[in-house]
## 1
Amino acid sequence: MVKESQEAKAKRVKKIIATLKKTYPDAKLALNFSNPLELLIGLILAAQAHDDAVNSVTQELFRRHRTATDWAGEDEQVLHAQLRTSNFYRNKTRSIQKACRTLMDHFGGQVPSTLDELLTLPGVGRKTANVILGNAFEQPAIGVDTHVARVSNRLGLTRQTNPDKIEADLVTVVPRSEWVKFCHLLQFHGRRVCTARNPDCPDCAINKLCPWPKSNRHSQVSTDK
Ligand code: SF4
């Protein structure tokens, strides 16, 4: 098989983005938030949880807790009761309160807007930090979640499984101005068409730009049964 040049891959990525933008004109982050703190809390709650479930919990929580001080100062048992429908709610309560105490102690109660600072917050890894930078601060950033990782691999944009290495590959072929939108598009596509177990390649808008159906023809047949 002829190895695709970086230049050719970058051109293909532009076509993928253009097609997915037409397919999903409303693509955006699935979590509801109105400020960086709400996004931080939402991302902590979203670990191993569905975004819709997080949104239904945060709607009321964000009315009751508006600042890092509100979250850090809340009684732990009260938060447990408010979060009890979330999975791992005890651990998530602890993470939220620790992160908010760090915000109060080191950042004047505000969520910082640089990668290095965000990574000092307890429980905040590179994916979460990049999602906050891209969506709350409108900075170019690629947050590699499960959908971005899976669809990027199938599209042949990376062969890595480690999210940090996937991000390093993607930044070389995705135009910087599209980094955030690219993630939204792959998240939408990954939820609707390029699903983990049963990707609908025949009806996929970008199947002509994707090597996966050809390279996985046999496994695809068995998966579709
Ligand atoms: S062709 Fe199949 S594997 Fe490729 S992006 Fe579409 S659904 Fe995913």
## 2
Amino acid sequence: MDAKSLEEKIKKLEEFISLVPKHKATEKIVALNRTRLAKLKDELESDKKRQKKLSSRISPFSIKSEGIQVLLISDYNTPGAGKTTIFHYLTGAKCENIGKFTPIPQIGIYKFENIKFQIVDMPALMKGASKGVGHGLEILSAIRSADLICICIDLGRNIKKQMKLILTELNNANIRINTTPPPIDIEKTGSNKIQVLYLTEEAKKYLNQDEDIKLVVKESGIHNALVKIYGKINLEMVSDALNPSIAYKKIILLGTKGDLPNTQNQFDLLKKKYENKFPLIIGVSGIKDEGLIDFGKKILNFLNKIKIFTKSGNIIAEPPLIVDNDSSVKDIALKIHKSFYKYFKYAVVYRKDSQMKKKRVGINYLLQNEDVVEIFTTV
Ligand SMILES: Nc1nc2c(ncn2[C@@H]2O[C@H](COP(=O)(O)OP(=O)(O)OP(=O)(O)O)[C@@H](O)[C@H]2O)c(=O)[nH]1
Ligand SMILES: [Mg+2]
């Protein structure tokens, strides 16, 4: 009767039920209280769900993505690596937070040639982030869904130490850097056996590892599957392909505070030591703004994206569409609306700096950066 919270009521009731002597006379009272207990537990469960829903709705870490999402991250240090300074430079947001620790993500828009990038200034990663330290799980989960991650490395501090902390936390969180998912597809079947198909010449080189590949698949608890291999693999990649929690992310390095003394050596070291894993390393200085002038162009290149304009009559639509650099007319048609694909008749492509200038093409025609496409349909 004294119990106030739901948890307390449940605890007391459980105690009560366990203490009541079980015989005919108490049978009913126990049964009634058991029902009451079940109801209270039910209430508690829906309470928890409601709270979770509420907190996820208002969590500053649940970021609605807009345009190409770019996250700024770094290790935790005082003073910081310069994320908020870069955020301010790119988005023009108010700069009163520079030099103060950023505790929750700050979101702003950076526009480059009418292309929208959503820049997110994240709180710094602390040691143990992958175990939940300092909102680490929320930060890592945001990293998993971003289009591009910029690791900011303070060139005025020990580079290896900063890189080690960040790479360790990313690795613990199963985030793979600048690699594509392994060329393996695993489809579960009802056939009660594991069959491996080697679908390219490169893949056929692994025929002699057939048994090992099957063993790794079985180890994950799958006993009936079709494993399709399309290219160069190893057993680790097979086990990666079986692990849905692995995320493959595009990541670049920004060496910050390039205006401080001796930072050229530090930048050279950063390049030498990490350019294998990070093909794009940019030196920036919040004071001179070097390196960030063409930032949009650099990152579109790095992400292998091209911009395609669509045209209808005499009007070229703005902003352009941003698509992968191996996109065809079909990808554009589908991106505009599936009816453009369904009722596709032909397209006209206008290409600058080419003899072609204007060409009538089919649905599988491959596009180039800055092409203008006009699609004609049968209806
Ligand atoms: N000399 C120099 N100082 C910089 C540069 N960029 C940032 N700073 C200074 O470094 C300090 C930290 O900068 P912030 O941009 O707040 O760093 P942060 O990464 O956002 O820091 P946290 O939010 O605490 O993780 C500030 O005092 C900045 O003025 C730069 O390019 N050159
Ligand atoms: Mg900050």
